[in-house]
């Protein structure tokens, strides 16, 4: 890399972990280095967020914006993360897992999208080592077991191919490489095969000078050994999204075993190994890659920045980010023969919006390979896709959000639905907020304070006009109760709570849950997921049994979601001193005093154990508990402590049914 990138790398933690200011940094090292350091600096001081998840998402947003302005930011970040992973063994167990999972889900895919294979493969292997050390070591031992035989086969193949290349007068270097451990792990799990049966465990790599020579070498390879049908890919003619180019073919090698051969030029090899990091070599004039080609490689980043501005929740942002980062793709064609790339699992709806927003909004049907297909059809590489449109179309429906796979399509569908329902949502939101504020019988002075707080709330949430706030409430992005809790001081809200207690005696569960902005409704907490304050919750209207409160990640919601009209918004009421039942499941390798150690760890937090049941099968132990906790934070603290106990493999939320 260039000097400024190396300087910024050495300074990358200065703003985050010391008292040095941006002004100090700019004075000593200049604006460019300061901007690079700012790009990799997390938000720590002077910022507060509702949850740790929101803070993490905001850090990702900042990182991607900085990356769009200067891609060297992410190269520094990836180098930093690689160093963190190489020294991760010194961290606590729960932190190891958190960092390794984030690396596998976010940073390794970013390295892949940027084409930096050297960093991607090491990040993936190290993540697997900390997340599933047993599987990692098994694969490592398996490679050692078959390595000698595989290497002998490849060496024989290499000698045969070298002789053929020399005879044809083609100068090329032949290398061999073993598939990296995480890639083997994925393939074994996906295909349910043994290590010995992997056709590309070890591969020959032929590196030539010219593109024409790549295809000439391919012909020689297929002449020497029989190709395996359906195992040829031409990434030179159709590069991957990260601009990776190579010919891949699988053949039956010298000893009758499958063997992969990759063929590429030296320029392609540089891009395959270093991706965008090779761009600075290009800028120095060592090859002729244009800025246009570099911009093409970064187009996916601009797409992320376009749709992320309109996503309303941290969950939506992270889901969409992960879809955009993973590189599994299908290649489909328009009726005119134009090639289009989409993520694996995409549907005709995604294809329609990729062509143009209006094509998507007016879509009424689709043909694939000249046959009518449902809009939920999963596209496959090689499909010819034709979208049928109509001006009379009523536009996309909410159901399309379940079918669309790409963030771009979902974003455009949401934008259409928002615009369509804007007037209705504006009035609905206005009525809900006015009704909520009327509950408090505010004095003129209090009304003035609330009006001021409302303006501040709008400013903090980038809602320029009152109308935008009403629309946001009507759409469900905020509930009227949430807004009221933010803008009405607690002392005023406390006044209303006291009145309620004096006027009516409601059950504990009714007091602590607010449904659709109303409290005091007859509700009960679901036994299947045992929600506690701090969990995101949703209310479900149960026929004949009132309203049940579930966690939003409750497994039963998948079954219940078939009737969406019976779901209502719900949130926790602010209360002190209440205790809540939380189901917990602990899985561990059995040993003496395991249950006693678990009980002692929980008791150290003054958390009560209401009931417990333990079972063992072989050397596998499972402990079911019902704990009395104040909130999600207290439960998370207990989880962290229990995970430190020897032999404990996992701690997760459970229901109360296991203890009946």
Structure description:
The chain is of the alpha+beta class and 660 residues long. The protein folds into five domains: 3-131, Hypothetical protein af1432 (Orthogonal Bundle), CATH 1.10.3210.10; 133-283, Beta Polymerase, domain 2 (2-Layer Sandwich), CATH 3.30.460.10; 328-420, Beta-grasp domain (Ubiquitin-like (UB roll)), CATH 3.10.20.30; 507-575, no CATH class; 580-659, Alpha-Beta Plaits (2-Layer Sandwich), CATH 3.30.70. The protein is 50% helix and 18% strand. It contains 29 helices and 20 strands. Strands 12-11-16-14-15-13 form a six-stranded mixed beta sheet. It is globular. Mean pLDDT is 81; it is low at 44-51, 281-290 and 502-508.
Helix content: 40-55%
Stretches with pLDDT under 50, minimum 5 residues: 44-51, 281-290, 502-508
Beta-strand content:
15-25%
- Taking all Cα atoms into account, the compactness measure Rg is 29 Å
Per DSSP E runs of 2 or more residues, the count of β-strands stands at 20
Any idea what the shape is?
globular
Strand order of the largest sheet: 12-11-16-14-15-13
Oligomeric state, counting identical vs distinct chains: single chain
Distance between the termini: 63 Å
Q: What CATH first level of the largest domain would be assigned?
A: Alpha Beta
Number of helices, counting only DSSP H or I runs of 4 residues or more = 29
Mean pLDDT score = 81
The total domain count is: 5
Q: What structural category characterises the helix and strand content?
A: alpha+beta
CATH superfamily of the largest domain: Beta Polymerase, domain 2
Largest sheet: 6 strands, mixed
